[in-house]
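Feature request, filed as a ticket because there's no other form

It would be nice if the structure record came with a short human-readable summary line next to the tokens. Right now we just get the raw output. Example of a typical job, pasted below so the devs can see what we mean:
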Amino acid sequence: MTSQPGKPLLEVAGLTRRFGGLTAVNGLDLTVGEGELVSVIGPNGAGKTTLFNLIAGLDAPDAGAVAFDGRDVSGLPAERLAALGLARTFQHGRVFGNLSVLDNVLVGAHTRLRAVRPRPRLPLLGPLAELALALVRPAPVRAEEERLRAEALEIVALFGERLTPRLDQPAHSLSYANRRRLEIARALALRPRLLLLDEPTAGMNPTETAEMLAIIRSLKGRGLTILLIEHKLDLVMQLSDRVVVMDHGARIAEGLPAAVAADPAVIEAYLGHKAVGGLAEPDGAEPDGAGQGGGNQHGERPVVARAAR
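Raw output as currently delivered:
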């Protein structure tokens, strides 16, 4: 059962990004309503991660526009978008290896710090004033730290016993799956209005994938707007309100999950022919947009035909 999306929170119009003679994203249109979970799928080099980079401010488009909550944010840097409430994770998990699990999560709340930032902001003296407040730690600063720490503990608790017993351990000591969980926890500390998840279950076994599915479903149930890249189509079918399919940088299909999975153009994009059945080739390295087919670095292969039944 799909939910009725609210007003558009994210609007992408005619988005294009070229790398030399390669067009990684080609005139793409995309809308995500408030409270909606939209999945973006496609074969190797389809341009999905490049799309995320353009939306999240890690790259700038050659043409087209990105609007967030009705505001044109095309080309804004990632830190400006984070302050507006846009958070993301990465295809290859990125954590601060020498920081503890708890400190990694707290880093995600950096845009919400208020007490440590003097008002008005002074271009030259501001950084020195912030340093002084951090060192002296007056009562408002201590209260804010305690509040954010309590929130971080609540976020970590979403992942059950996977992260909680490891709060004080450095992130580099975590398993691959736990580093992926930690990256999502850090993104949630931003209190995002829009969460971009880039292959959150990559490298996870079936049990870990089921746990992640339950977590994403709970976030959706709380009303969080999510844009998801995922190659495990069983998960996509269960979670998505809509599915957008990309191939060679362009959108080739969009609609309800079951309809998209049965679309001949989608099957052809994955399989290289129109015959129904067999295995689809999952997403691999991006954003280069080069190459089609083949498994990703984790050897995971989604099944299009099974999802379409």
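Something like this underneath would help us a lot:
The CA atoms of residues 108 and 189 lie 5 Å apart.
Confidence is low (pLDDT under 50) at residues 275-303, 305-309.
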